[in-house]
Design a protein that fits this description.
The protein is of the alpha+beta class. The protein is built from eight helices and eight strands, in the order αβββββααααβαββαα. Helix 5 packs antiparallel against helix 7.
């Protein structure tokens, strides 16, 4: 009896250890990725690669000349090919069959009948349309009033400054975890009119967007962009800041109030 209980205990502890190990791997082991995207007048080409756990699980996506190919590899030997070449080869035949079916289902239009008699006057529907418009206007105004009341409520909410600072800190942490470590954008861009190109680049510089590698073309309309991004991301780097943000004193009561309002509305 003791031997059986010992074996059961060892099995349960082994399963628990495996589950904890899997959870730790999912949380702490990052996903490494890199991507190269080229956009031009002819279209968009892309080559993206991602790997996890020493490349035991990896995937690659390629788009070139309008043809897409997605391949997933698991444990170096198991391969999942998700390309759609066969579907694209048969696409013209399928489109032709669908067009023929649509034409066959269409009924010929009824012959026109000339009516020389005087047409009967139709009932006036102005009153009904006016009532409908008034109802729609009232519903819109009520929605706007409700939104303004909610804005005023949260503007006067206690601890508003702490909530804003905590939210801003959360956004910065998430951006630090998500934004690629290597990001490079190069190319050439020109719009129809020179002043439109100038406005676009001025707005991008004002927003601190990474457009230093893009050359503006004020002479002609053109588009040639190359984007390279590489980095890593893990679940822990996203979930931990969210958890710390949710358990803070001014945030958690606000979350509970929002959840209670959602339940009351339902």
């Amino acid at each position: 009896m003791l031997n059986i209980l010992t074996i059961i205990g060892i099995v349960l502890l082994t399963l628990l250890g495996l589950i904890l190990l899997l959870i730790c791997l999912l949380l702490f082991v990052p996903v490494w990725y890199k991507a190269q995207v080229s956009a031009g007048v002819s279209g968009v080409d892309a080559d993206a690669y991602a790997s996890w756990l020493l490349a035991l699980v990896r995937a690659r996506y390629i788009r070139k000349g309008g043809v897409e190919d997605l391949r997933v590899y698991v444990f170096w030997f198991f391969r999942i090919n998700l390309d759609d070449k066969d579907d694209k080869e048969n696409a013209p035949e399928k489109e032709l069959e669908a067009a023929v079916e649509e034409l066959s289902e269409r009924e010929p239009p009824p012959p026109k009948v000339t009516n020389t008699e005087t047409e009967t006057p139709k009932p006036e529907t102005d009153d009904l349309s006016d009532k409908g418009e008034k109802g729609e206007k009232q519903s819109v105004t009520e929605k706007i009033k409700g939104i303004l009341n909610q804005i005023n409520y949260y503007r006067q909410y206690p601890g508003r400054d702490e909530i804003i600072s905590a939210t801003w800190a959360l956004i910065k942490r998430l951006c630090k975890a998500i934004i690629p470590k290597k990001l490079r954008l190069t190319g050439e861009l020109g719009l129809d009119m020179p002043h439109q190109t100038a406005y676009l680049f001025g707005a991008a510089c004002a927003l601190c967007l990474p457009v230093s590698g893009i050359k503006p073309n004020f002479e002609k309309q053109t588009l040639s962009l190359d984007l390279f991004a590489a980095g890593k991301i893990s679940l822990w780097s996203i979930l931990w800041p969210l958890f710390r943000y949710a358990i803070k004193r001014p945030i958690w009561p606000l979350i509970k109030k929002i959840l209670r309002r959602g339940d009351a509305n339902e």
